[in-house]
Amino acid sequence: MKSLHNLAMKNILALAIASTTATASAAFDDMGTNYTTDPQRYHVWNQALKPIELVNSILCFTGQFKANNFVNAGPYIALADETACFKDEGNSDASAQSAGSSNTPAYVKVIVEATRGDGPTDPVIVKVWMPEMGGGGEDESSSIRFKSVISKGASEENPFGSFTFNFAMFDSFAAGNSQGGGEIKTIDIPNKIGFTFFENELGEEHTSSKSASVVMSADRSSGIALTSNESSGGGGDGGGGGGGDSSQANAFGLAFNASNVLLQTADSYANLPYKDGNDGSGTESCLNRTAFDETVGRYDLYHAADGSRVELNSGLAFKYDSDDDSTFDSFGHVGYWGVWSEKPDALVNGATIKVETPGTQTSVDYTIIKAPGRLIKNTVQELVLSEAHGIEFSYWSQDAQQRNFNNWIVQYLTTAADSVEVDGFYKTAGSQNGDQGPMVMELDAPELIVLTDHESLHMNSQQLGGNIQFTEGNDSLTFFKQEFINGSETTSLFVDGPAALVCIDRCPVGTLGEEELASWDSVYSPRVTDLDNVIMFTIDNDGENPLALIRDSNDEVVKYADGITQTSLQQSHSPNAWGVRSGRMVTPDVYAELTNVWDIHNSSKVTVFYEWETGLNDFNKTTSIKDSNGVIQTFDKPIQITYTHTDATDRSGDAKTFNNKLFMLNYGGSGNLWGIPGTQSDDGRYNPVFNIADGTLIGSDNEYVVKAREVEGTMQAADDSQCELLALTEPDAPVPTGITGDADIGEMPVVTSAPAVIGGVIQTPQE
Predict the structure, then answer these.
(1) What is the pLDDT of residues 221-253, one digit of tens each?
(2) Average pLDDT over residues 447-476
(3) Mean pLDDT, to the nearest integer, of 617-635?
(4) Strands 251-256 and 316-320
(5) CA dist., res. 543 & res. 29, Å (int)
(6) pLDDT at 589
(7) What pLDDT does residue 104 have?
(8) Using an 8 Å Cβ cutoff, are 380 and 608 in contact?
């Protein structure tokens, strides 16, 4: 179960220790543009802040509801994007700027009701029902109720405002089995601002609790904060610990002034160094409150010509009939990356969906088109081998499995720089999946990958955006700008109706059963050796099998056969559990220009080619929608940009080993820029390996400009003498040991109208 405390966002305690709220480092073009006026949020990370990440998760998640826009408007539905507030610490691709592998939003349906009395001082009361949170199915999800009473909104003088916030988690509303709950309360102390927090989680195998008290002066120049994270039983995240190892600490104390932060850690509150009679097991350190190491969590792109924000059409919300009773009772969202729906098994090929027009009671019907795979258009980009030095690649081969690796780590090494015998691609390490995520095992010595003439090496590089191909004999490797074909390409691929595709290398045999999927090479026909014996495929955006690739010789759809499951693939030890991808396919006009089979990898002759991917996973398939006239609807694909990072474009001014290195960046709108590799720090958190400076121009014609929207600062160490004037004491607001309020908000209202808010964007205009 993903409980709310696993979500992540800006740390509310950062307001206690960040010296200022950062703004854009420099104006771009005229004042008043989106670039200059869009706020830049700055937060501070420290291990002491980890116990209250739940506070930040709640504020991130509930901020998407836009409840202040619907006060006294009655209950409404919001679809909140879980991925926008969720950070998977076990995944190096988790940060927004490096996450291209999971772009489909994980929406959660929420019922919200905001009310306020007629009196000028009456509070706003927000009630929230979340019937299913967690996305793992009924057995792994939670039902959650929120209740917030807001007396004063946040202001520059008091960024916390005045509120109480209670939540309660259950197995389900019907069962009512408690999984815990929590409370956030702002303090009411003259000339002071801050909050207290308590949360407890009740699991089958473990229980945990988090608590905090944060109290600071009204001008935020000084303050005291205590935080704690305790757990018992297996599976908790608090850990035991103690001693002097701060990575195992459960209790933290911070005292800060305008310049520095005194940090104390221990295994419990009782053992913090400032406590009388403590046993000396805690530790103490001094940090600089004005010097930070910065990382960027989210960027936006702006048009360089006028500073306006780059906007993308992300998709449409819809309703559909989930139980075939002619009532459109469930909700979904369709966009470039595919479909999210409440009950995905009910959203079958050919199903009718209704898209309601915002602000009206009218709707338009569309038809779902599902294909068992997806056709990927690749536009070739080249990188000369001399510039490949220093880029990390991954590569799968059977000998990796024989040596208990999931993948090889590969680098291009040279005799001049690396003292190897010949220039070439070398295996330098192997990757294994461990309990804490991927582990890299260095080889004793690099091992050259030996290729025959014209043989192709297929690799992957996060830095270059995915698939990489090198053909022996070439002086460059190729990487690709990719986009998914959705059937709307009536002026290009489908200009004459069904599209013919010519395959030479790795041509799928057709429908793939257990026998074909048993090994890597049995899913493909033998390699084509001359241009007179190529293998033909056809794909149509209409007809009996829309958007499905069909092999002409046997009229079979290239897909996994009915009855194949992940379980059956695992039992047969199939190497194709994650899907199958064809080699390069080209249109007949490109094929006509080839003089031999090796030309398929000649980037001067083949600048655009197609690949077919199929499998059991949603990401191996295509979902589109068409209107009543049969016109397939389009959504904006991510903007792909080849970008060279330099010292001048690095946020710190020092690009280190990434100076003059090429990267493939993708921008999906709304702060979603990815393509920067991530690395894991000592405390298990993933961060980008570099950060782009505000005002950096990117794009083939420098048509875009970059600005960070969320920046995280980590305080640098300071000399202990700088904290001599700081002393840690008990905060004026005691650390809570339980919950004083409740989230008893009654039965969840029945709402049948379309979602009013999706991913924080209001769909229905409010008067």
Answers:
(1) 999 999 998 877 654 444 443 333 444 568 999
(2) 91
(3) 88
(4) unpaired
(5) 51
(6) 96
(7) 60
(8) yes
Q: Are 581 and 524 in contact (CB under 8 A)?
A: no
Backbone dihedral region for residue 29 (phi beyond 0: left; psi -120 to 50: alpha; all else: beta): left
C-alpha span between 142 and 159 (Å, rounded): 30
For residue 165, what are its two tokens? 């916030």
pLDDT at 2 over 70: no
In which residue are the tokens 């309660």 written? Answer: 168
CA distance 549 to 555: 10
The H or E element containing residue 60 is helix 53-63
Residue type, 395: Y
Q: Among 134, 76, 68, 144, which residue's Cα sits nearest to residue 107?
A: 134
Nearest to 667 by CA among 295, 294, 298: 298
What the block records as the tokens of 604 is: 């001067």
| Single-letter amino acid, residue 716 | Q
Q: How confident is the prediction for the chain on average, in pLDDT?
A: 85
Find all residues with CB under 8 Å of 760, minimum gap 6, and list them.
63, 64, 66, 80, 81, 84
Ramachandran class of 347: left when φ > 0, alpha when ψ lies in -120 to 50, beta otherwise: beta
* Distance set, CA 404 to CA 73, 443, 531 (Å): 59, 13, 39
Place of tokens 């999984």: 179
**Number of helices followed by number of strands (H, E) in the chain:** 8, 43
Please, which residues have CB within 8 angstroms of residue 536's CB and are 6 or more apart in sequence? 500, 501, 502, 503, 551, 552, 553
Q: What angle do CA 527, 531, 534 make, to 5 degrees?
A: 55
Residue 509 backbone phi and psi in degrees, to 5 = -75, -20
- C-alpha 466: how far from its chain's center? 16
517 phi, psi to nearest 5 deg:
-85, 0
pLDDT tens figures, 26-60:
456 778 899 999 988 888 888 888 766 667 777 77
Please classify residue 185 by burial: count the beta carbons closer than 10 Å to its beta carbon, then call 0-12 exposed, 13-18 middle and 19+ buried: buried
User: 652 and 25 in contact (C-beta within 8 Å)?
Assistant: no
Q: Is 517 helix (H, G, I), strand (E, B) or coil?
A: helix
Nearest to 638 by CA among 665, 601, 676, 678: 665
DSSP per-residue letters across 657-700: GGTTEEEEEEE-STT-EE---EEE-TTS-EEES--BPTT-EEST
DSSP state of 504: -
Q: How far apart are CA 151 and CA 68, in angstroms?
A: 13
Mean pLDDT for the stretch of residues 327-333 = 86
pLDDT digits (tens, 9 = 90+) for 58-94: 777 888 899 989 999 999 999 888 766 755 544 433 3
> Is residue 212 helix, strand or coil?
strand
Alpha helix stretches (DSSP H) within 242-305: none
Average pLDDT over residues 579-593: 96
Q: What is the pLDDT of residues 259-310, one digit of tens each?
A: 999 999 998 888 899 987 676 678 999 999 999 999 998 999 999 999 999 9
The CA distance from 273 to 287, in Å, is: 16
Residue 262, both tokens: 């005194």
Report the C-alpha gap between 70 and 64 in whole angstroms: 13
Q: How many CB atoms lie within 10 A of CB 88?
A: 17
pLDDT value, residue 26? 42
Residues forming beta bridges with residue 41, ordered by sequence position:
710
**Residue partners of 514: CB distance under 8 A and separation at least 6:** 561, 564, 568, 572
645, exposed or middle or buried, with CB in 10 Å at 0-12, 13-18, 19+? buried
Instruction: Compute how many other C-beta atoms are within 10 angstroms of the C-beta atom of residue 547.
Output: 25
Burial degree of 454 (CB within 10 A; 0-12, 13-18, 19+):
middle
